[in-house]
Amino acid sequence: MKIPLLSKLSLAILVVLVSFTVTDAKRRRPPGGRLAIVIDERLSALRATPELSGALLRRVSRGGLVAITAATTNREGIVFYRVNVSRAVGGWMQRDAVVSLSRAGDDARLLRLIKASEDFDRVARARVFLDYFRLSPLRPEVLMIYSLAAEDVANRLSHDARRRLDETEMLAGGAPVFSYFLNYYGLDRYNRQGITFVFDRRQNRFRYDGEGWREIVHRYPNSPQAVEARKRLGEAALSH
Asked: Does the pLDDT at position 15 exceed 60?
C-alpha cells in the first residue's frame, strides 16, 4: 500500500497523541469516608443490606469510585463495606470488589488480580493501579506488565486494522490513507486507558510508544524491570 508523504518527519512514524486524564479527575469523588476504587465488577453489586442475598440497588463499573463509611462481617464471614457512590446513593458492597489506598496490602492484592487477568481486563486493572498507587514499590512491576500488554495489543490491532480497512474504500473516500488507521475504532478503548500508539508507515503497523518503559528507566533505574525496559526502548529505536 502506498501512502502519500506528509513531511520528512513523517517518513517513519506518526504519533497518536492521547492525553490521559487521571481517573479521579474524570470522576467526581463521592463524599464522606475513605476513597476506594472498584477493581472487580463481578463482585461490585451495591446492596441494601450486607448480605449476598440483599436487594440489588445497582452495579458499579470497574474504575468507579466509592467512599467507605463503615464495615461489617456477615454470618458467612464475608466483609462488606458501607459505601457512598454519590451524595444520593449508598449501600453495601463486598470488600473484595474494591481496593483502597488506606488499606495495607491492597496494592499487592490488585497486582495479583492483574497477573491473573487477560487482554483488556489486564490493561484496565493495571491502569487503575498506575493511577492510584503512585508510591507503591510494586509500581515498576505493574508498569512492565502494562507496557508488555500494550505491545501485544499493538500487534493484534495492526492485524485487525489491515484486515478490516479496505484499501479501495479508503482511496475512494479521499482522506489520507494513514488517517483511517489512526482513526481505527479498535484503538479507542485502549486510548481511554492511557495507551499511546505510534503508526509505523514503513511497516504499516501500530507500535506501543514505550511510555511505561521510559518511566521505569527514569524513575526506577535500579529496579529488576529496568534492564528489560532499556532493551525494549533500544529495539524500538532501531526499528525507527
From this structure: no
